[in-house]
Amino acid sequence: MWDWRQWNSHKQRLVTGLSMAIPVLILLAFGPYWSWCLLLGLAAGVGLWEYQRMVLPSELPQHWRFGYILLGLVFPSAAAMGGATGLHSALVFCLFAGFLTLLFFSPQDSQGIAKLSRLSLGWLYIPYLLSYVLLIGQADQGRPWIFFTLIVIVASDAGAFYTGKRLGQHKLYERVSPKKTLEGSAGGLLASLLFGTLFGILFIGTASIGEFLFLSGFLAIVGQLGDLVESLMKRLYGKKDSSNLLPGHGGLLDRLDSLFFAFPATWFFLQWLDQGLP
């Protein structure tokens, strides 16, 4: 029997990444829209579970944790059924529900507002931002644009990792992420420009080369900043990883951090291009 715990971290990272990526990519390429909703709901639920364990490790009883995750699933459901209007309505609904919970169940809790603020940030950070995948999926060429975003971010991550490993000398932002380097960041940006633009020209074609270059570079920068945001969050709460769910990778949030802000950026770009979004 193979024991993955005896593998080096790079091998664990590669095997885990492929075992996750292949079924997800098949579903995104060929699955019906409702299967996307299930996938996003699962990702949002796991992400919220990791988030609340990180920011409120012992301050919420189990039934409150379950209710928090369940309420977060309103976001992908609303995005699927109501588009952008539904998604933004879900944000208002969840925030109002949070205040009502404080009002009727914890009116004497002096830390109630602070807890609600941290939990509401989790709703914004995870299911709200992830739900933009479903909004993009409603565009005329939704699937190719989803893959465009994924390719840009994967190219950025891989380019940054291997360039930084071979050439990295100058720290990018040592106070937040000591291992990241300027050379790695530049390598990730160049890889994104190359692969994103090539994919856009070959498989989308509804934008100019300049527009694909711009969006590829912009998404690479947004993705790297998103990675730093999650690194900051873990550092503030004294965590190395968001969880130990994925061997070699940490938690699901550690894998999605670069994508959280990339999907909304792609959606706004499609709005600018007027790509048939409802």
UniProtKB/TrEMBL annotation:
Annotated membrane topology: Multi-pass membrane protein
Keyword Transferase assigned: yes
Compartments where located: Cell membrane
GO molecular function, one term: phosphatidate cytidylyltransferase activity
Sorted UniProt keywords: Cell membrane, Lipid biosynthesis, Lipid metabolism, Membrane, Nucleotidyltransferase, Phospholipid biosynthesis, Phospholipid metabolism, Transferase, Transmembrane, Transmembrane helix
Reaction(s) catalysed (UniProt annotation): a 1,2-diacyl-sn-glycero-3-phosphate + CTP + H(+) = a CDP-1,2-diacyl-sn-glycerol + diphosphate
Transmembrane portions of the chain: 20-45, 90-107, 119-139, 145-164, 185-206
Domain of life: Bacteria
Biological process annotations from GO: CDP-diacylglycerol biosynthetic process
Enzyme superclass (EC): transferase
Enzyme Commission no: 2.7.7.41
Pathway(s): Phospholipid metabolism; CDP-diacylglycerol biosynthesis; CDP-diacylglycerol from sn-glycerol 3-phosphate: step 3/3; Lipid metabolism
Pfam families linked to this entry: CTP_transf_1
Gene Ontology CC annotation, any one: plasma membrane
Protein name (database record): Phosphatidate cytidylyltransferase
Classification of source organism: Bacteria, Pseudomonadati, Thermodesulfobacteriota, Syntrophobacteria, Syntrophobacterales
UniProt gene name: cdsA
